[in-house]
Structure to design on (144 residues):
């Protein structure tokens, strides 16, 4: 009788070789909900004042192309060995495109007025990208 009772106990205590994943799924779903709720809150705007910086000046071998965005949203273009001239968006893109095709290594900077609309400065950068400029720098005054 002792042998029969030993076999019954042995059968009852057989180990399972499965992992119970239900608690892990619950934790994953809770984390998913937390991230879905908090993600839209991370995209809030912050008021910033960009034009002043303590960055060091970049040494240039050639004089760069400077696109100036006025406070009223107009564009001016200062190219190498030429005076600054006021241009519209189409002329700006055409002139910069022609100059960059002949001199692909030339530096291009955008100088936006402090009171200029951010969208206008951004549109100037989009125009430069469409004109074939790969890298654009932003100009600022020193913080001193």
């Amino acid at each position: 009788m002792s042998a029969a009772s030993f076999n019954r106990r042995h059968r009852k205590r057989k180990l399972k070789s499965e992992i119970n994943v239900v608690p892990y799924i619950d934790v994953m779903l809770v984390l998913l909900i937390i991230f879905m709720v908090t993600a839209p809150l991370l995209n809030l705007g912050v008021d910033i004042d960009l034009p002043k910086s303590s960055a060091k000046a970049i040494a240039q071998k050639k004089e760069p192309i400077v696109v100036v965005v006025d406070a009223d949203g107009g564009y001016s273009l200062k190219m190498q060995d030429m005076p600054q001239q006021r241009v519209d968006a189409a002329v700006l893109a055409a002139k910069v495109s022609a100059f960059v095709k002949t001199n692909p290594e030339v530096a291009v900077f955008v100088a936006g007025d402090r009171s200029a609309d951010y969208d206008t400065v951004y549109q100037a950068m989009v125009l430069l990208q469409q004109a074939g400029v790969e890298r654009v720098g932003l100009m600022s005054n020193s913080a001193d």
